[in-house]
Design brief:
Blueprint: H1 11-24, H2 36-43, H3 47-60, E1 63-66, E2 70-73, H4 78-102, H5 105-120, H6 125-143, H7 146-160, H8 163-166, H9 172-188, H10 192-210
Antiparallel strand pairs: 1-2
Helix pairs in contact: 1-3, 4-6, 4-7, 4-9, 4-10, 5-6, 5-9, 9-10
Amino acid sequence: MVELSLSPRALYEEVAELLRQRIFSRELPPGSWIDELKLAEAYGISRTPLREALKVLAAEGLVTMKVRRGAYVTEVSERDLAEVYHLLALLESDAAGVVAANATEAQLRELESLHNELEKAASSRERFFEINEAFHTRLLQIANNRWRDQMVSDLRKVMKLNRHNSLLKSGRIEQSLTEHRAIMTALTARDPAETTARMKEHFRNGMEAAI
């Protein structure tokens, strides 16, 4: 039995994060059944905090609870992805427009630095995912709307269930970089309308690659 040392924060939150990372890494792939007894034994906990953790993941859309069958890692349909990308396009393009209008020069330099890292990461898919997420996260932070941030966070968790497929399409990483360059050009020109349009285009193309 593998024993894990859990931190002092709420036990179910720690378990939820452990399961979340196993889902994102595909150790628990979409459609797989979550064996509560086995996991409780492996983590050295009762089933109560585990079930609370599963409720958290279900609320995030990562886990689907089936009556009398237990919990399963969510399988994302094409419709699910289309709806998630549509909402992300609206939310993040709005944030991008706010940043173009209101960001300080120092904040724009931060985004430029992240973009430069993204350019260097083109040969490594995992690194590209990491820097791309950092770029979008920082842009949202600069836009500074906590309600939008929460919605985007939940939507991106669902998108991560399919993220490995989205950049496997031939040429998608290079296309994504081209889109990011256009976003940065619009940001540095402080053109909210153009920045909004380029971010919407970025998500529209991402959706086409993912579905």
